[in-house]
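Re: the 85-residue chain
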Amino acid sequence: MTRSRGIGGRIDERGSLKMNQHDQELLAKQLWGVSRSPPRDGAIMGFALATVFLIGLAVGGILSAPTSDQLNSQDSNVLIANLRR
């Protein structure tokens, strides 16, 4: 035996909700923005990953650009000579 649950849907003996076609269409309209599936095209995801990687390399190169405070090769030779003593 099913009993009415107000507008739409019915509840059966086990307490589960039965949905008709109209209820399913309304639910689909309500959830259209929430339950979008992720893009299935692997090429787009690969392109996005490669783009993020290259941008990361560029930003890292800019942030680690040599400055005048870094050791030059002559300073490195002096440091190595002092460490060997």
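DSSP finds three helices and three strands in the chain.
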